[in-house]
Write a structure and sequence with these properties.
By secondary structure, the protein is α+β, with helices and mostly antiparallel strands. It contains 17 helices and 18 strands. The strands form five sheets. Strands 5, 6, 7, 8, 9, 10 and 11 form a seven-stranded mixed β-sheet that branches. A five-stranded mixed β-sheet has the order 13-15-16-18-17, covered by helices on one side. A hairpin with a 5-residue loop joins strand 2 and strand 3.
């Protein structure tokens, strides 16, 4: 006994006793996992390959489930589940991606939509099995009903609590909601954002009860210093936590189960002590455990005395061999130092060679880039030439088609009229003779106009036309052009003219404006019914003039409007109405030469509105004053 008392006075024996007691106590705890941490060869080749193919598996913790899982003030994922997940990552040698969400309902919704891959702490339920698979359980938590202290001064059974009517505050989408609905049919469920909100509602009298697990309720009560709450009853149903995994990741379930099996029970106990600040009542005082600890301690102490004696003897023997090994070690260090020096020299030489090679490689890469740039420029130029050639071929084809069609009709008229003239001349019919002469003149005028349009467009494309601004009376000029167009139509047509102009005399390119209005009016009269009205509007703005020609004719097909300004293009709905397809090209050129723009609004069989807007200035101003 004296020897035992002396041994207890020695501090190092107390340390050993504490270590042994901790080991034995740990052996008495409930096992929640097994195996050694750090192994990575337990996965199959298929499983390891699957992880390599999915480098960014996402996990979203429940932000309102402290102390199991939550985010601290700095936004870091923490809690029991965080420790658990870190251990899983070490075992798998894999880093999961943490995703922050607002609440548990959003987490389930995003897993169901496969926007998030897993959740760490999830209770298995029938509704969740539709879109998730679950790992083996890794933690079990008791559920309780929390009420105000003035309502329940001591715990009651859940069966007694079921008979009462009240409101239960439960986190939205938590599995316990279905359990309370089934077992407390007379009660009302109030969904809340998280456990903290549920407890605060009960504390302030807004709800009668809060349903949560004992760990979360105790943590939040201590954190917020809520003194008027107490556990009213324990629930038979416990929260058995699994890792919830999106349903199409079946192979990930097997991987997580294997990782769970590698976590030793000591880890769970360490995390439990760190994060769960209450005694659940499950680890009661066990005299058998204490007796076992004492017996083991005595045996180990006796063995330690014997081991200490043998250790001293072994140390003495080892000291002699250690001196010899130190001498040999010095020699080895000298050899290693010499080898290191030689190795550093060779590395320096190789590094120099590598730098020279890299310089040459960079030069070659730069040359390659320059050649590639030149090649791209040449390719683009060639594509532009090919595109231009295609455009010219298309224009040539259109020109030949137009000439063959548009010249054929007036030439036929001229030939037939010449034959008829001879008859009228011999018979002395002067009226018929004059009518045929007029037909010949009209056909010749049409052919001349067609040639003038082609020549005008050709000069425009070659930049061979130059125009100067001159002072004109815009209203008078517009009326003159309208009168000529009505006369050229050869029939009585109604053209309404409306001018909103403050200063009639402006500086403008007369010939270009004439081309624009003539062609717009010609098209409007040609492609609209004889009984319909054509409207011309002239509206003056701030150094701008807007010309609108509105008709109620055949309109332009919607799918062909993008080809409106292409030379020689005629639309599919023009029928037998003659035309060269050059008018709109000339209009566009003239408007753009005046510095303006032209727009079109057209609905097939309802009409067309052509709007040309161009800048103007007044006789007492200079063009430079506008800029």
């Amino acid at each position: 006994m004296l020897l035992f008392a002396k041994m207890l006075k020695n501090a190092k024996y107390f340390v050993i006793c504490s270590i042994i007691m901790t080991i034995v106590a740990g052996m008495s705890c409930t096992k929640l996992g097994g195996g050694d941490v750090g192994k990575t060869d337990f996965l199959t080749e298929e499983e390891r390959a699957w992880l390599d193919e999915h480098p960014e598996i996402t996990i979203a913790p429940d932000p309102g489930y402290a102390p199991i899982e939550f985010f601290d003030e700095k936004g870091n994922f923490t809690g029991f589940a965080a420790e658990f997940l870190n251990e899983i990552e070490k075992i798998l040698n894999y880093k999961f991606q943490i995703v922050k969400i607002n609440n548990w309902g959003e987490l389930l919704h995003r897993i169901e939509n496969r926007e998030i891959d897993m959740c760490v702490a999830c209770v298995e339920s029938e509704s969740r099995r539709k879109f998730m698979v679950f790992s083996d359980p890794w933690l079990e938590l008791p559920n309780v009903v929390v009420a105000r202290k003035n309502a329940y001064n001591e715990r009651v059974s859940f069966d007694e609590l079921r008979k009462t009517k009240g409101t239960f505050a439960i986190t939205h989408n938590y599995a316990m909601s279905d359990y309370i609905k089934d077992h407390c049919p007379n009660s009302k469920i109030e969904p809340v954002k998280d456990v903290e909100e549920a407890l605060l509602r009960v504390s302030m009298g807004n709800s009668d009860y809060a349903v949560t697990n004992l760990a979360a309720s105790t943590y939040i009560i201590h954190k917020n210093k809520i003194i008027n709450l107490a556990v009213a009853a324990s629930l038979p149903k416990r929260d058995v936590l699994h890792i919830g995994i999106r349903r199409d990741y079946q192979i990930l379930k097997g991987i997580m189960n294997k990782a769970l099996a590698e976590i030793p029970p000591s880890k769970y106990k360490e995390w439990w002590k760190k994060w769960v600040k209450f005694d659940s009542g499950e680890n009661k005082f066990d005299p058998a455990v204490v007796l076992s600890i004492l017996i083991c301690s005595m045996i180990i102490l006796v063995g330690f005395v014997m081991w200490n004696y043998l250790l001293k003897k072994k140390i003495s023997d080892s000291t002699k061999s250690l001196h010899y090994e130190l001498a040999e070690s010095k020699k080895a260090e000298e050899i290693v130092l010499l080898c290191n020096q030689q190795l550093e020299k060779r590395v320096a030489e190789r590094t120099m060679d590598l730098r020279e090679t890299m310089v040459k490689l960079r030069e070659e890469v730069e040359e390659h880039k320059q050649l590639e740039v030149k090649l791209n420029i040449a390719r683009r130029e060639l594509e532009q030439v090919v595109e231009k050639e295609k455009e010219l071929n298309s224009m040539k084809t259109g020109f030949v088609s137009m000439v063959s069609h548009e010249y054929k009709t007036p030439l036929s008229v001229i030939m037939s009229s010449v034959s008829i003239l001879d008859v009228y001349f011999q018979t002395g019919d002067s009226v018929g003779f004059k009518r045929q002469c007029r037909r010949i003149n009209e056909s010749i005028d049409g052919m001349l106009k067609m040639l003038n349009d082609v020549l005008f467009l050709g000069k425009a494309e070659n930049n061979c036309i130059g125009y100067e601004d001159e002072k004109i009376d815009i209203t008078e000029l517009t009326q003159t052009i309208i009168s000529n167009a009505k006369h050229a139509a050869g029939e009585k047509r109604t053209v309404l003219f409306n001018a909103v102009v403050s200063a009639p005399e402006i500086m403008l390119k007369r010939e270009l404006y004439t081309h624009v209005l003539q062609n717009l009016l010609t098209n409007a009269l040609k492609y609209s019914p004889k009984e319909s009205t054509v409207e011309v509007q002239l509206i003056e703005g701030d150094h701008m003039m807007k010309l609108e020609v509105i008709d109620y004719g055949i309109g332009i097909p919607q799918d062909e409007q993008e080809d409106l300004f292409k030379p020689f293009h005629r639309f599919s709905n023009v029928g037998n109405v003659s035309g060269t397809g050059l008018g709109m090209s000339i209009i566009k050129y003239c408007v753009e030469t005046m510095g303006g723009e032209i727009t079109v609004k057209s609905v097939e069989n309802k009409g067309t509105t052509m709007s040309a807007t161009f800048p103007i200035y007044y006789p007492d101003e200079s063009l430079e004053s506008l800029f």
